[in-house]
Design goal:
The chain contains nine helices and nine strands. It is α/β, with parallel strands linked by helices. Helix 6 runs antiparallel to helix 8.
Length: 300
């Protein structure tokens, strides 16, 4: 009889190396939001991968960076805390020969970790094989690695090998979640993140970092396959509110249309989405507001 393996695997790395893209690829559907802006992921997000050999619970974490406010401190804590709670660490890096201060800081954090650490070199579709060998050579001694695996999260190259290697290192264990589950995230949280993703993708650089999304109501209409959602985008300045709404409301309409399409795909029904914009000055430095918008240290 074949043994069943299971366990928890955290994906860590600097902001913007492709952690959420990798997790969505492994989960087989959109769980975590993605954008080309740093600090897109703010919370730990779990995706569940099932196969006949076992169950892998992936944790996507915020990028490890130098915190500039209380929200930043929460994000770094969320990432670093997972190192003590998992069976395997995947450290995701970009395919470059330059190892910067951010990577060296993560390497130091990993020195005290006594579980398998796998170096995952992402975006290999952007370099040639000769460059890749040099990159592997540069990284191999920066920390103690159980494996070094080059992949492309974007196109799926080598991700099957990555899964097979992870299962090889996992202990025998139980089924932690039902086999039809792909995430433990509540629907409201995923919906809020989908709206935030569209603001990240459509807005200027200085605005998105100061945005949170709150779902005020999410109700299914009786006997109709329609869900009514009222959401609020919170920003830090009046000028940002104007940018989010846009000329004649064009930007907020665009964000709403794009978000609604993703939410309808998630909920498998029609969605009536209404979005408002509110200003909460300097909310990222308010313990009360950070907690209110779902970033509570007690939950870590």
């Amino acid at each position: 009889m074949e043994t069943f393996k299971s366990g928890f695997v955290t994906i860590i790395g600097r902001p913007n190396v492709g952690k959420s893209t990798l997790m969505n690829r492994l989960a087989g559907q959109k769980i975590a939001i993605t954008s080309n802006k740093p600090q897109t992921t703010r919370n730990r997000i779990q995706a569940i991968y099932n196969c006949k050999e076992g169950q892998v619970v992936f944790l996507d974490t915020p990028g490890i960076h130098k915190a500039k406010n209380k929200l930043g401190e929460y994000m770094v804590l969320a990432a670093e805390k997972t190192l003590k709670e998992v069976d395997i660490v995947l450290w995701l890096v970009e395919p470059t020969t330059y190892i910067g201060a951010g990577e060296r800081y993560i390497a130091e954090c990993l020195h005290s970790v006594d579980i398998p650490v796998m170096l995952v070199i992402n975006k290999i579709d952007t370099v040639n094989k000769a460059e890749l060998l040099t990159i592997i050579d540069n990284y191999k001694d920066i920390a103690k690695f159980a494996e070094i695996i080059p992949i492309s999260a974007l196109n799926g190259e080598n991700t099957k090998d990555l899964i097979d290697t992870i299962i090889k290192y996992l202990p025998e264990g139980p089924l932690y979640y039902d086999k039809d589950m792909v995430t433990d995230q509540p629907e409201r949280q995923i919906v809020a993140e989908m709206i935030r993703e569209k603001t990240l993708r459509n807005l200027e650089n200085e605005v998105p970092h100061g945005i949170a999304v709150s779902i005020e109501t999410l109700k299914e209409r009786k006997k109709k396959n329609i869900v009514d959602i009222n959401a609020v985008i919170i920003c830090e300045r009046d000028t940002h509110k104007g940018i989010i709404i846009g000329k004649q409301g064009n930007m907020i309409k665009k964000i709403g249309t794009q978000a609604r399409q993703d939410i309808e795909s998630l909920l498998a029904c029609k969605v009536n989405l209404k979005i408002w914009v509110k200003v909460k000055k300097d909310w990222r430095n308010s313990d009360y507001l950070i907690k209110n918008f779902g970033y509570d240290r007690k939950d870590l």
